[in-house]
Amino acid sequence: MKSRVLLVFPAYDGLLSETPPVGITYIASYVLQKLSSSQVKIIDCSKDGFSEESWLKELNDFQPDVVGISVQTLNYPSARKITRVTRQYDPDILLVMGGVNATLDPEKCLKHCDIVVRGEGEKSFLEICQGAKWEDIKGISFKNEEMIQHNEPRERIKDLDEIPFRAEHLLDVKGYKFYPSWNLIGSRGCPYACTFCCSPVVWKRVVNLRSVKNIVDEMEYLQAKYDIKHIDICDDMINISQQRTFDICHEIIARGLHNKLTFACSMRANRQLVSLELFQKLKEANFIKVCLGIESASKKVCALMKKNLPIADVSRFIRLARKANIQSVEGYLIVGNWGETLWDVLKTWRFVIFNNIEPSFSICTPFPGTEFYRLQKSNGYLTKEPDWTNFNQYTPIARTDKMSRLQILLVYFVSVLLCHTLLLIRTRKLTYGPSGLLKSVFARITTVTRAIKSLYHAA
Length: 459
What we know:
Blueprint: E1 4-9, H1 23-34, E2 39-44, H2 45-48, H3 52-62, E3 66-70, H4 76-89, E4 94-98, H5 100-104, H6 106-109, E5 115-117, H7 122-129, E6 140-144, E7 147-150, E8 181-184, E9 187-188, H8 199-203, E10 208-209, H9 212-226, E11 230-233, H10 242-254, E12 262-267, H11 276-284, E13 287-295, H12 299-304, H13 311-323, E14 328-335, H14 342-355, E15 358-363, H15 371-378, H16 405-458
Parallel strand pairs: 1-2, 1-3, 3-4, 4-5, 8-11, 11-12, 12-13, 13-14, 14-15
Antiparallel strand pairs: 5-6, 6-7, 9-10
Helix pairs in contact: 1-7, 3-4, 9-10, 10-11, 14-16
């Protein structure tokens, strides 16, 4: 039995997060519910930073039996530091890695830990803490003598209401820059197969849902307990069906939460998933912002990335959202896609400017396990072990068939300057006021500075 559980979200290289971690807070609440005798602590290094001295103090003060580490590609170098210092402190502490990166590349992570939890972590991690034999735990990988053993996958949790609300009481809620905003998950998975995205690899294109009541119960709880003012629903797409989205809005309004909270969400723009009536209901429920993945305005590029989203549907989405007086429409866009030329990028810039949306640009990054990663590798553009600290969506990892790393970075640089900053001056001041505008412009300056630094490495 592992009764003293220390869960950690590693720091991003050179960056501090404004938002709380999600995965380990669900792990914590699940363990606390099922093992009432356990003691669980969460350390969010993405908020507070990491130093060997502070980590050693945490280990010495808490004396954990097991350390669970949530690993993403960008925080993988920091995760390795945590495992190294922990091993030096006490080799008997069980080290467990989980999260997207651990799921996509368990062999790499097992160089630094004892067990990798693949996919959904609640049940597998609980069984580890309960002291089950490793060979009997579904969904984990571990070293069995000199061989790596991958146990059979664990079945997905179909009814997400089984999982209690996140263990926010283990976080410094009001210490996040994002506060009094908070994030919330209402589903896991996405039915689409975009080549650049980790979701189809991790969730196998299967979507599991929380009930509408359970979601709105948590909204009500967060508002009452922590005085939250804004909730960002971080599902891949809230409108997995129009009816479900209507139901969420109806429940928010029925409880009067639309008078206490504002909301934001990500949506899919396909014609059958949106309507003017849906946007009007979102407006009534006090959704002030909707986000959508556009990626590119080029039909050819969208087809190559298996986006399956006609640009005409995107234009219709924006038009309907404006007609319903949704305050802010943010579009996620990617440059440096496979098959993308400068002419394709110009189409995207033109689309952004003429549709007057808030653009959020990033560089197409070949995250391990994705189809884009395999494509880059098979064509010889990823020939050596990458520097994981550069998997940050503003540094070009490799050239594509149409653009060099330097060209990709220059395109991104112009995207930030031309489309990002100028359009934010025009739109965010209406959405967030002068202070929001200043914060946004400062964030863009920071992004451009990072791009200049990475320009040196790309040259």
